[in-house]
Amino acid sequence: MSCTPPIAAVPRSARRRSLSALVVASASLCSVSAFTPPSHPLHRPSIVRRAASVLKVEDTSTPAADTTPQQPTYSTAPIVVSSKAEALSHSDTTLKLVPSYDLFQILPESEGGGAPAVLLGNFNRGKTDLKGDRAVDPMEGYQIMTGGSDITKLPDPFKMVESELKPFSDSISELVSSDQPILSMAAKHFFEKRHGKRFRPTIVQLVAKACAASPPEQNSGGWEASGASDVTVTPANHKGSESWRRQAQLGQIVEMIHVASLIHDDVLDEADTRRGGESVHKLYSNKVAVLAGDYLLARASVLLARLENTAVVQIMATALESLVAGEIMQLKSAPDTLLRMETYLRKSYYKTASLICYACRSTALLGGHAYGSAAATAMEEFGFHLGLAYQIQDDILDFTAAASVLGKPALADMDLGLSTAPILYAAMEYPELRPLVKRRFKNKGDKQTALEYLYKSETAMDKAKNLAQFHAQKSTDALLRMPQSESRDALVRLVHMVITRKK
């Protein structure tokens, strides 16, 4: 998890450029998104605020036909754009997205969670006709943590798209080339070194294939038809099609945005290493690193506009805004809120899960599915829970894995005054830990004391693992609403890899 130090630790100019770069990129994307859907309103009122919490209502997994989508309640959680600015930037025909944590369940029932209200982005999630008249799904009801050795019989997600991603590094390096040698080298750093497994582009490719195996649903028009292409994509005509090209380009865009956020975060966090190598600002300088991140965001914005799908542009622009919202939330959350698990999970959504889940929904749209379709909703739900499971597991590893294995410093979150799931569960057990969390471990000895309480606890780490497994299962359940296909099953295996990884 990329984190932010006390604000005084970072030069003002670097802070301003790092955060403003994401804001500018998000704003520039929104400005090209004039969107005119059919007459039924997709939209919340013009003044948009971040939704407050998961609303507890009766189980809506199979909503009644006459169910009317509700509006979420709101809080004054830190956001980038003020309500007044939002009102000025929207019209009655622009797409206004409900944050994913209001569409899907963020906490288990045992911890106060519940089925979310039926809203404008999830009311088709209970549809069960996506599989049509196909044979019984052998994966029906699959439990991700108790499925046994069968998981290794599912397709390997990385090998399945290996040939399609093989030219990825060369292609994306060309897309971010610049006439300025230093800028070009800094921007290409993570792509040419071939660090990582291209986790996000792999997800996009597999989601694209899974959506091709699910015929677009018939709809009666209205806002739920927003964003769908007019081409019916099938497994037979998918590869090599215009939809396939755009989905592949979206994978590159997502990786550019992700890498840009890492470069900026490393400047803010003063991190020396990333993915087992030196961070960009250590190799060059803070100024070069900030400009390289800015440049990647600018290139991603241009390429995103060239997808020529205004709904996708708006969705991915919101992902950019979410990254900034996560940084603001990390810096400005009130001390009392730092003890709440829901605050931690929302911040994790903004900083990690939002880019994944919005990319998944956008991939479905580029494959011919409407924004409000059950397939597009299932894909966003899958990405939402996968992103949270990934982040929680990452935070667990921060306490259990060595820095040499992680590829970044261990205990980095605590060094920056941040409390993650294991510490929060320990604080529930030991009230003495709570003042330390609220003051962000600023006093001498706070970090060591917190670690002692964590390792003394018999439940904290297990509860954190259970929370990660809860989201992994929810992610799997969303996938299993899709028709059976090799790509869908490969995504199930990917969920298992995320929750059992050691680095």
List its salient traits.
503 residues, two-stranded antiparallel ribbon, 22 helices, mainly alpha
Structure description:
The structure is a single chain. With 503 residues, this protein is mainly α. It has helices at residues 12-31, 83-89, 100-103, 157-160, 162-165, 168-175, 181-192, 199-212, 235-238, 242-269, 280-283, 286-305, 310-332, 341-366, 374-400, 403-406, 412-415, 421-429, 434-438, 446-456, 460-479, 486-500, and strands at residues 273-274, 277-278. It has a two-stranded antiparallel ribbon. Strand 1 and strand 2 form a beta hairpin. Helix 1 (12-31) runs parallel beside helix 12 (286-305), helix 1 packs antiparallel against helix 13 and helix 7 packs across helix 12.
